[in-house]
Input
Amino acid sequence: MALLTIENLSVEIEEKELLHGVSMEVGSGEIHVLMGPNGAGKSTLGYTVMGSPEYKVTGGTIIFDGADITGESPDKRAKRGIFLSFQNPVEIPGITLSDFLRSSLEQITGQRMKLWDFKKQLKTAMETLQMDAAYADRDLNVGFSGGEKKKAEILQLLMLKPKLAILDETDSGLDVDAVRTVSAGIAAYRESCGGSPLIITHNTKILEALPTDRAHIIADGNIVREGGAELIAEINEHGFEHLTGKDTI
Amino acid sequence: MKQKTQVADIDRSLYDFRFEEDAADFLSSGITPEIIREISEEKGDPAWMLEFRLKSLEIFSRMKMPVWGPPVDGLDMRNIVTYIRSKSRMNTDWNDVPEHIKETFERLGIPQAERESLAGVGAQYDSELVYHNVRKEVAESGVVYTDLESAMHDPQYAEIIRTHFMKLVPPTDHKFAALHGAVWSGGSFVYVPAGVRLDIPLQSYFRLNAKGAGQFEHTLIILEENSDLHFIEGCSAPKYYEAGLHAGCVELYVGKGAKLRYSTIENWSKNMYNLNTKRAVVEEGGRIEWVSGSFGSHVSYLYPMSILNGRGASAEFTGITFAGEGQNLDTGAKIVHNAPETASHIDTKSISKSGGISTFRSAVTVHENAVGSRSSVSCESLMLDGRSRSDTLPVMDIRTDKCDIGHEAKIGRISDDAVFYLMSRGMDEQAARAMIVSGFAGNVSKELPLEYAVEMNNLIRLEMTGTVG
Output
């Protein structure tokens, strides 16, 4: 059984339809890539699966782990094991990254982790991402650079160990080294819990060290191609243009 | 499309308990010279105090009600019994405190607080101190912590009190200062000798427990040169059916090189008029730090003032105000720079919710002689829904150009993006909003001693979700 099944999903925002009957599946433990030109609907899909109230589902269903979650609130989806790495993580003044992570873990697992164990796990995860330990005591995302914010998202991924991790352009705006670090973080996440990343990107750099099982190409709110890792090579060579029939990127 | 999210109102049952009044020789409602004489006689006031009270009453009857702030027309002075005396006298041993009074205080956590390393408890029940205990080490250091009335009768302190009482806040200051001067009752007197630094905080609880009663406690604190004190004032009152009035007065004298931190959490029940006046004067190199949390009351007027009178004196004000349904809280701070190289910093947060109105006022005055002074004012407001209101009224009166003045104000709402972000990490909507609000208030709770910070966070959580988690 697939971990995530999206069936004929239509989504609108402020009465403008952005997805027109999208269907796709993500199998348990697989690495999936969602690619497409700017404005194709990649982020819309990610936000909708996470349950953002901004996006209105006008048709179709989202099935996760055998349950229909189409109408569920984001916190319930998080508890089921869905995670979204934000393109622009929000700054929350007055709450430290560490306190936030501990509350989040408690909400999702229903258990309060011992402080000592939590600190140990956090330290290891931060080392994997080459993050300065001082960030744990800084207010969540406040004053973080773009790259630090993305690392903090992957840090949450490592700590929360979701079944499905939607990574919305986590690689955008990062330099080569940072992309490599983030990529290593995703690999560590997979190793730790066997979760499934759904990587949204328009750059294939991040995929170099990650064995992609399946790629989905989206354009104008429709899935236009699906295939294996070979599809990524094709895009690297020819761009999206020949797939979508449009001049893009 | 904006969606209005309603957050459950606070469950105040935790605070709204009340015991049947057994105390009280009620004096007839309303205030006349005869009542003032009765009060004075009952207390055995010295002659100068009776005279002071009568003069204050005269000023009170001449002055107009304030019209520039939240409406106070719900306040009927003829219905307020100004003086209620509990039958219990002062106790220094907890065992001697009557059982029902003890129970009330226990529900407020006073004995625990004391056990948890607080230096002394002066707990006011109705208008008089019924329990008073200063730890040995505090007494041995020479610090005096007692109720103001006892001190007034003690030959050692009588003169100090006569020369300081309502000298910083004269009865002519405003109508409710005059009322206070006429009917004041109860309160604390703290005297810290030169060079004494108390590293544990002194604490007092004030509380009203009689229907229709006003409370007019007076706090007088004097710090001699190079001394250091942290005084905590905690307020909580049970709910009444008639409007209650609190018109307390706090006068703080901070000597050369001395440092005073004055922390308050006010959590009056939501029918209370809180018209409180607080003022500090700071001498050369001295420092006053105010930490102020205003949560309760129907209407509040509260603007602690710091007068920086000596070179290098400094003031810091950190405050938070939370106005919920039916509340109109008008709070802020005043600073007067009256000497060279003085420094002040005001940092406030205000939150309004469910139609609550929160107004921030600041007044910074820099006199001509205050060259080389610095002042910064920062206020941030958070409105939790479209029905609530938040206003900011910063006033600056700068008489010299040889100073450095800064001001910043921010008014905002909780963004949907932030709520979604936290929800995507497993918090439900209420928890997400509560987390954002606690974070917003974080700078204030960081300034409070741990148990107070916990209490404040619980209050915020209660206000936001109706539960303490």
Notes: Helices of chain A lie at 42-50, 74-80, 97-109, 115-128, 146-160, 176-193, 230-238, 241-244. Chain A has eight helices and twelve strands.
